[in-house]
Amino acid sequence: MTKLTADIQANKALFVTETQATRVVWSLRNEEGDWLSVASSEFEDSEVMPFWSNEADAKMQCADEWAEFQPSELPLDIFLEDWMITLVEDGVLVGLNWNDSLEGVELEPSDVAKLYL
Questions:
Q1: Which residue, 43, 65, 73, 93, has most beta carbons within 10 Å?
Q2: Angle at the Cα of 13 (from 10 to 18), degrees rounded to 5?
Q3: What global pTM score does this model have?
Q4: What Pfam families does this protein map onto (predicted)?
């Protein structure tokens, strides 16, 4: 059962706590190897790539228009050291622990990295 709630700030805090413990983050990837990114609901003309702190919450999103995607694991150090740099360069925001209503924070990659300091 998910620990995610309507409290998106609590979900963000849970993301940091769980990923620090497991050293893993989860995102969604299709059979062609493409990672899921979607239009931002908060910022016009921006894309956001969602990430979850556990496989079950990521898998919960693999339905409807995202049915072709499956959870894919990333080591936390690669996520923070490589992915945040690439997402900054690409101008893509980071979504953390979106709940089953696809509500969650959307942050600049540099702000995500600061959560681990």
A1: 93
A2: 120
A3: 0.95
A4: DUF2750 (PF11042)
CATH number of 8-110: 3.40.1350
Domain limits, the chain: 8-110
How confident is the model over 19-47, as pLDDT tens digits?
A: 999 999 999 999 999 999 999 988 889 99
82, two tokens: 């490589």
Closest CA relative to residue 58, chosen from 105, 98, 3, 18: 98
Please check whether residue 8 is in contact with residue 105, taking contact to mean a CB–CB distance below 8 angstroms: yes
Q: Token pair of 57, please?
A: 């919450």
Tokens for 46? Answer: 């921006």
Of the candidates 98, 16, 13, 96, which has an alpha carbon nearest to the alpha carbon of residue 61? 98
